[in-house]
Design goal:
- By secondary structure, the protein is of the alpha+beta class.
- The protein has one domain (30-154).
- The protein contains three helices and ten strands, in the order E-E-E-E-E-E-E-E-H-H-E-E-H.
- Strand 6 (57-62) and strand 7 form a beta hairpin.
- It is elongated, with a radius of gyration of 25 Å.
Length: 167
């Protein structure tokens, strides 16, 4: 829990964690790593201000190939997220102050992260259900070590089993 007296940005004095009356310190700046050819467009270290986000550091970069990526460092490591229509996103972010830019980049990251988590959960549920219904099909490809695994479609109940004809 962040107990900074006022919003602070990583690298500046004023960070106070879980001790409202205690001494302040400096939360270190810890940016995500760049790859060869990356050009930094925006670099926003972690901060607080209504929300404790000191552990997230965002960078919007242009790759050597011309694509745009949002780089994120957090407690779980580094992530590189592709940004489509990067030119328009860059123009929009340039109109914001650094604080607004940080929170928008955080919203982009968390939207992508939540969507990826939901997709994993949905796929895991699909496979668990298929396993419980014994619909997983495994075939070894002849002459190789490869195995093809698929899910057979669920059988729809026949109308007879739902509404048996009266006798």
């Amino acid at each position: 829990m962040c107990c900074c007296g006022k919003p602070t940005i990583n690298g500046e004095q004023g960070y106070r964690w879980n001790n409202p009356g205690g001494p302040t310190s400096i939360y270190p700046v810890n940016p995500p790593e760049l790859e060869a050819g990356d050009t930094i467009l925006f670099d926003e270290p972690g901060r607080c201000g209504g929300l404790d986000s000191h552990s997230y550091h965002y960078r919007l970069i242009r790759e050597q190939s011309g694509g745009f990526r949002l780089l994120v460092r957090h407690g779980g490591g580094d992530e590189r997220i592709r940004i489509s229509n990067g030119g328009a996103v860059t123009d929009a972010l340039a109109m914001l102050d650094p604080n607004g830019r940080y929170w928008v980049m955080g919203a982009i990251y968390h939207a992508q992260s939540d969507a990826a988590r939901q997709a994993r959960e949905d796929e895991a549920y699909r496979w668990r259900t298929a396993a419980a219904q014994k619909r997983i099909k495994v075939r070894k490809q002849r002459g190789t070590d490869h195995v093809r695994v698929s899910i057979k479609p669920a059988q729809k109940p026949s109308s007879e089993s739902i509404h048996p004809d009266p006798i």
